[in-house]
Amino acid sequence: MEPIISFSNFTFKYRTQVEPTLYDINLNIYPGEKVLIIGPSGSGKSTLAHCINGLVPFSYSGDITGEYSICGKDPKKMDIFGLSQMVGTVLQDTDGQFIGLTVAEDIAFALENDCVPGEEMKRKVDEVADTVHAKELLLNSPFALSGGQKQRVSMAGVLVDDVDILLFDEPLANLDPATGKTAIALIDEIHKTQKKTVLIIEHRLEDALYRDVDRIILVSEGRIVCDAKPDELLAGDLLREHGIREPLYVTALKHAGCTVTEDSHPAHIETLYTDLYKEKVKAWFESVSLPEKKPSSEEILSVSRLGFSYAPDKPVLKDVSFAIRRGEMTAIVGKNGAGKTTLSNLICGFLKPDAGEIFLEGKDITPLSVKERGEVVGLVMQNPNQMISKPMIYDEVALGLSVRGFPEEEIKERVYRVLKICGLYQFRNWPVGALSFGQKKRVTIASILVMDPKVIILDEPTAGQDYRHYTEIMEFLKYLNEGQGITILMITHDMHLMLEYTDRAIVLADGELLCDDKPARVLTDEALAQRAYLKKTSLYELADKCDIADPVMFTERFIYYERENHHGTSVNL
Amino acid sequence: MGRVLTYEEKDTWMHRLCGVTKFVFFLLWSMTSMMTYDTRILLVMVVLSIILYRTSRTRWRQVGAVFKFILLFLTINLIAIFFFSPGQGTKIYGTDTPLFHVVGPYVMNAEQLFYEFNVFLKYMTVVPAVFIFIVTTNPSEFAASLNRVGISYKFGYAFAIALRYIPDVQDDFRTIRNAQEARGIEMSKKAKLSSRIKNMAAIIFPLVFSSMDRIDVVSNAMELRGFGKNKKRTWYMARELKPLDYTVIIVTALASAVALFITYHDGNRFYNPFV
Question: What backbone torsions phi and psi does residue A375 show, to the nearest 5 degrees?
Answer without folding.
Answer: -80, -20
